[in-house]
Design goal:
homodimer, 169 residues, Arc Repressor Mutant, subunit A, Dna Ligase, domain 1, three-stranded mixed sheet, binds zinc ion, DNA-binding
DNA sequence: AGGGAAGTGTAATAGTATTACACCCTTGCG
DNA sequence: CGCAAGGGTGTAATACTATTACACTTCCCT
């Protein structure tokens, strides 16, 4: 499921706001590698969608992406959804369930890992951080209920460090 | 935020599938108590929506609820959304972000608690279980990032015990 | 050359949620 | 009593999110 990502060690841990991705090219490379491994084409459309997300510091809805892309040439939402499906499979884009929006991911993910998406209700940015404790907690809850876990969705709404400071000032 | 719920100790722990709620009346009472505490009316519409959800073993979308209610008398989705807002505030209904659907809740919730919604991809039922470990994990991740947490969304897709057995047979 | 898997472009449709507005009904006053 | 304010209702319209269907292409394998 995870597949191989070409951009290991991008972000040394977590903590940096998701923000304008330092290296769009590296993310493209990640997607390209995934495509190659599956013998699937890494098409124009897929690259365009990923690029838009990677340049943005906040999650975008599929229709916002559609609008951005349509500036140059008219694009239909369904085309964007198709690309998003691919990119999510590739692991370089995540969907934010609470906001029905999508954002590019800088991180290397491992199966069985639980990643927390921290969403700022003020500025909308997302920070992601893996948590072993959360993973264990999920595992424990599932076990106790005889539930066989497949994949988790963990989102935390709140206020990011930057916005807290700003407000204090 | 939590408010007082009248139906303490309904479910001795967790583990029982969400299923046809043993005591619809108790849930109604919970909502009524919340309304009273806020000096808000517990209206017909609110009771009807809660009753539909409480009788159902799976989450329903707002439009499914609308259809159920419309059997007796035509109802608009917006009316259902309004009631759902109230019931969520009251804490007796939750929204499942991954499925954009709603289900009635049997449990007493406490602030700072993290509740895991285990969603069966086979039969669609939801089981909820609080997890201290998850709560700690979220707290830790937030702290490390300077993030001020407000409320978490924790959903775990997988296969429930019942469906696992069924398949084995 | 032929066949199949995968992608594209376009149109239409399904499904989820909100806004706007006119009206009602209670509560709390002057 | 008169009447304003807050909340709920009912209705219509609209906005926003996601999927299905289909005709056509392209690439790869044989
Ligand atoms: Zn990620
Ligand atoms: Zn912020
Ligand atoms: Zn609950
Ligand atoms: Zn099941």
């Amino acid at each position: 499921m995870a597949g191989e990502k070409a951009h290991h060690e991008r972000c040394e841990g977590h903590g940096h706001a998701h923000s304008p991705h330092s290296d769009v090219a590296a993310m493209i490379e990640c997607a390209r590698a995934f495509a190659a491994a599956r013998k699937l084409p890494f098409t124009e459309m897929r690259a365009r969608v990923l690029t838009v997300l990677a340049r943005e510091e906040k999650p975008l809805t599929a229709y916002e992406i559609t609008d951005r892309l349509s500036v140059s040439k008219k694009v239909q939402a369904v085309q964007v959804y198709r690309a998003l499906d691919f990119l999510q499979e590739a692991g370089c884009v995540h969907r934010l369930a609470s906001k029905a929006s999508y954002f590019a991911c800088d991180h290397e993910h491992h199966p069985g890992e639980a990643v927390v998406f921290m969403v700022c209700s003020q500025c909308g940015t997302v920070q992601e951080a893996p948590s072993d404790l959360v993973a264990q907690g999920l595992q424990g809850a599932a076990e106790h209920a005889g539930f066989k876990p497949a994949y988790p969705i963990v989102e935390l709404e709140g206020e990011c460090a930057r916005c807290s400071e700003t407000k204090a000032a």
